[in-house]
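Bumping my old thread because nobody answered last time. Still need a sequence for this structure:
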C-alpha cells in the first residue's frame, strides 16, 4: 500500500530519525582473527603512497594497499529516499593521511553501521580492495592537521561492502613503526580567555565543565524540506574567564552522548568537543560570539583515558584547575533545559533582514496560526510580524505555569496531529482570554498595584555582561527601560534560588499597574475578526536548577522522544517540582495588527534573579532585549536592588511609551509536542531602530 502524502512525510521522518539512531548504536565491531594476523604482516604487503596514487590512479585497474591515519571523521549521513529501495543508505567521510598527503575516504552503505563506531580519529588503517574516483568539486575538506601536508582534492577513496568488497584492517598503535612517518594528531585547544581574539570561522577544540545544557530542538536543513538538524545550546566553563563558551551543539552521530548530556556535578566531569567553528560579528549590538559544531566535530564526556588530546598542554592545565576546586560556584548554579533565546538578533531591523535567509521576511499576523500548525515536533523557528502593542500584563513567577500545568493534565490521550493540537490550544486560550476580558475592564485593570524604586535620571546604572562578568558603569538616560550603553556579548541563564530576603526595594516613590491596556485596544478589541492566543508558558519552557539525583528524569524531559518506550520506575516527579532558574515571571503581550482587525497574544520571558547580581539578566522590552541585567549603582543612600515587580514596572512603562507606535516583533515559535506550542517575543523593533 502506498502511503498518502501526509503519512509519507511522517514515515520518512521516523525512518530517518530512528533507523539512524539504531544503526549507530550497534556494538563496536571487533577485528576478526584474520585481520589481526594481517596486521602483523604489513611489511609483506605492497603499499602505495597517496601522492603516487594521485598521479597514477586514472591508469590503474588494481590499487595497492594504503597505510594511513584517520585525522577526521564526519557525521553519519542518511541519504534514503521514499522511492529508492536501499536497505542501508548511509555515507560517512574520513580524512586520512600518510607522509605524502591528505585525502578524503567515503564509506558507503552497509559498511557504515558495521564500522562507524570502531573507526575513531587517530587510528592507523590498512585499506585494501578500494576504488578511486574523481572528487566531488563542491565539497569543502576540513583543514589539515599539519599545514605542510599536501591536501589532495582531485580524487576520493571509496569503501564498499562489494564492487569491490573493501578490506579494512586496524593497526594497533603499539605496532605503528616510526619509519612509516605517519602524521601525528595536532589538536587546536583554546581557552575561553583566548576566544575573544579568535577570527571568524577559526576551527578549535575546547575542554571544560558543563554549566548549562539546553533542550533538544530541531531546525529544517532546507526550507520546504522534511529533513531536520537536531541541536541544543550548552555553556562550558574552563576557569580562564568569567564567561563560558556558548556552543551550538548539533547531533554528532553520537546519540549515546548527545542524548545523555547533563550539567557537571560535584564530581566535575569534564567535557571535550573538537572541530568547533567560531561564529562572531563584532559589528552587531550586542556582539555575537559563539561556537558551532562542524561536520567533523566529536564529543567526549567519558573515556578520556588514552585519547590523543590528553597530552595537550591546555588540557593538562584544565585538569589541574579541576583538581584544585572542590565546591565551585559553576557547579552550584548549573541549569538544564527551557527556552533559550539565542543567538540574539541585531540592533536594527535592516541588519536583521539582511541576516536571515527566508522567502518572506515579514509574516502577517493572520498567517501565524498556519506557521505554527506547520511546525514539526521540536522544530523551532523565528518569524517577524508587524503591529501595535496594545496590552501588557505581568504574571508573577509563582503562577507562571499554573494554567499550563492544568492544560497538560487535560490533553487528549489520542495524541492528535500538530495542526489539531495548535487549533485546540487556540480554542482553550480563547476561553481563558474571554474570562480575562470580563475581569480586566479599564477600571479593574488598574487594581493591581506595586511599588518600585524610581531611579534618578542623573545616576549611572551598571550593565552585567555575561554570566560571571564584572560590573561596568554606563551612562543612564531617562529610565531603566531606556537604558543604553555597552551591550553584553552573551546571555546568562545561571541564577540562584529565589528568596524573600530581596523584598526590600528601598523607598516607595511611585506606583504602577501590573497591567496596561491602551485606549486603542478598548476601542478595537470587541470588533476583531480574529484573536490568536499563544501566551501560555509551559513547564518545559522554564530553565530548571539541575539536581544530580534527578538527572535521569530531567535529561528525559529536555531530550527528544526516545526511540523505544521505557516505562517509568515508580511515580515520576513533575517539572514544576523543580526550582526555576528564573524569578521574574513572564508577561502576556497583545499585538494588534496594523489593520486593527486581528490580534495575537504572545509571551515575553525576561530573565532575572535578585540574589546573584553576577548571573542575573533582565530584558526591559526594547533596549534591554540585549541580554543585560540593569540595576542601580551602589551608593551611600538607601537605594537597593529593586525586586521583580519593580523591574516588571519598568517593562510595563516601556510598553506604555509605545502606545500607537508601529513595531516589528521577532517571535520564537516552537512545537514542544503533546499539544503544546510556545510563542515568545524575542525582540521589538520600533521606528527608531528599524533602519
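Sorry it took so long. Here it is:
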Amino acid at each position: 500500500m502506498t502511503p498518502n502524502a501526509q503519512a509519507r512525510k511522517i514515515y520518512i521522518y521516523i525512518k530517518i530519525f530512528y533507523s539512524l539512531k539504531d544503526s549507530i548504536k550497534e556494538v563496536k565491531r571487533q577485528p576478526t582473527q584474520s585481520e589481526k594476523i594481517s596486521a602483523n604482516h604489513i611489511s609483506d604487503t605492497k603499499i602505495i603512497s597517496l601522492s603516487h596514487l594521485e598521479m597514477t590512479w586514472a591508469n590503474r585497474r588494481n590499487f595497492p594497499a594504503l597505510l594511513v591515519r584517520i585525522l577526521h571523521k564526519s557525521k553519519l549521513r542518511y541519504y534514503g529516499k521514499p522511492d529508492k529501495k536501499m536497505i542501508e543508505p548511509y555515507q560517512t567521510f574520513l580524512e586520512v593521511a600518510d607522509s605524502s598527503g591528505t585525502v578524503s575516504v567515503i564509506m558507503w552503505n552497509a559498511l557504515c553501521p558495521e564500522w562507524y563506531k570502531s573507526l575513531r580519529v587517530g587510528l592507523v588503517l590498512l585499506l585494501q580492495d578500494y576504488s578511486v574516483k574523481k572528487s566531488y568539486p563542491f565539497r569543502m575538506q576540513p583543514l589539515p592537521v599539519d599545514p605542510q601536508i599536501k591536501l589532495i582534492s582531485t580524487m576520493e577513496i571509496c569503501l564498499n561492502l562489494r564492487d569491490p568488497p573493501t578490506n579494512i584492517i586496524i593497526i594497533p598503535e603499539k605496532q605503528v613503526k616510526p619509519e612509516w612517518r605517519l602524521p601525528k594528531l595536532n589538536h587546536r585547544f583554546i581557552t575561553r580567555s583566548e576566544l575573544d581574539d579568535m577570527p571568524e570561522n577559526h576551527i578549535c577544540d575546547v575542554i571544560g565543565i558543563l554549566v548549562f545544557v539546553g533542550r533538544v530542538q530541531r531546525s529544517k536543513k532546507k526550507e520546504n524540506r522534511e529533513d531536520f538538524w537536531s541541536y541544543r545550546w550548552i555553556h562550558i566553563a574552563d576557569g580562564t574567564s568569567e564567561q563560558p563558551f556558548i556552543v551550538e551543539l548539533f547531533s554528532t552521530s553520537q546519540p549515546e552522548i548527545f542524548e545523555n548530556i547533563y550539567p557537571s556535578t560535584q564530581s566535575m566531569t569534564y567535557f571535550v568537543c573538537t572541530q568547533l567553528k567560531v561564529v562572531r560579528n563584532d559589528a552587531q549590538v550586542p556582539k555575537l560570539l559563539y561556537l558551532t559544531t562542524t561536520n567533523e566535530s566529536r564529543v567526549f564526556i567519558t573515556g578520556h583515558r588514552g585519547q590523543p588530546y590528553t597530552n595537550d598542554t591546555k588540557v593538562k592545565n584544565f585538569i589541574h584547575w579541576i583538581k584544585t576546586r572542590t565546591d565551585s560556584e559553576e557547579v552550584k548554579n548549573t541549569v538544564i533545559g527551557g527556552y533559550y533565546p539565542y543567538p540574539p538578533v541585531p540592533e536594527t531591523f535592516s541588519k536583521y533582514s539582511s541576516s536571515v535567509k527566508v522567502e518572506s521576511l515579514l509574516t502577517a499576523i493572520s498567517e501565524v496560526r498556519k506557521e505554527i500548525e506547520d511546525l514539526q515536533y521540536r522544530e523551532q523557528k523565528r518569524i517577524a510580524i508587524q503591529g501595535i502593542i496594545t496590552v501588557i500584563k505581568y504574571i508573577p513567577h509563582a503562577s507562571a505555569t499554573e494554567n499550563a500545568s492544568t492544560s497538560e493534565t487535560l490533553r487528549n490521550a489520542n495524541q492528535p496531529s500538530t495542526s489539531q493540537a495548535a487549533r485546540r490550544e487556540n480554542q482553550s486560550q480563547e476561553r481563558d482570554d474571554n474570562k480575562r476580558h470580563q475581569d480586566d475592564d479599564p477600571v479593574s485593570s488598574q487594581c493591581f498595584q506595586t511599588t518600585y524604586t524610581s531611579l534618578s535620571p542623573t545616576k549611572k546604572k551598571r550593565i552585567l555582561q555575561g554570566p560571571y562578568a564584572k560590573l561596568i558603569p554606563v551612562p543612564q538616560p531617562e529610565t531603566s527601560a531606556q537604558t543604553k550603553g555597552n551591550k553584553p556579548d552573551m546571555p546568562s541563564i545561571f541564577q540562584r534560588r529565589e528568596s524573600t530576603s530581596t523584598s526590600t526595594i528601598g523607598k516607595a516613590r511611585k506606583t504602577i499597574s501590573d497591567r496596561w491596556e491602551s485606549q486603542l485596544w478598548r476601542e478595537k478589541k470587541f470588533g476583531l475578526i480574529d484573536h490568536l492566543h499563544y501566551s501560555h508558558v509551559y513547564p518545559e519552557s522554564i530553565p530548571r536548577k539541575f539536581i544530580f539525583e534527578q538527572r535521569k528524569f530531567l535529561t528525559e524531559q529536555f531530550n527528544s522522544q526516545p526511540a523505544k518506550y521505557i516505562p517509568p520506575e515508580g511515580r515520576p516527579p513533575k517539572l514544576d517540582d523543580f526550582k526555576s532558574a528564573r524569578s521574574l515571571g513572564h508577561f502576556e503581550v497583545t499585538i494588534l495588527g496594523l489593520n486593527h482587525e486581528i490580534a495575537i497574544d504572545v509571551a515575553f520571558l525576561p530573565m532575572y534573579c535578585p540574589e546573584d547580581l553576577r548571573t542575573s539578566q533582565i530584558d526591559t522590552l526594547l533596549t534591554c532585549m540585549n541580554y543585560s541585567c540593569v540595576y542601580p549603582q551602589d551608593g551611600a543612600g538607601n537605594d537597593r536592588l529593586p525586586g521583580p515587580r519593580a523591574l516588571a514596572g519598568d517593562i510595563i512603562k516601556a510598553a506604555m511609551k509605545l502606545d500607537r507606535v508601529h513595531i516589528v516583533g521577532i517571535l520564537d515559535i516552537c512545537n514542544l509536542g503533546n499539544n503544546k506550542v510556545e510563542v515568545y517575543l524575542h525582540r521589538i523593533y520600533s521606528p527608531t531602530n528599524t533602519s
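The chain has a mean pLDDT of 75. Let me know if any region looks off to you.
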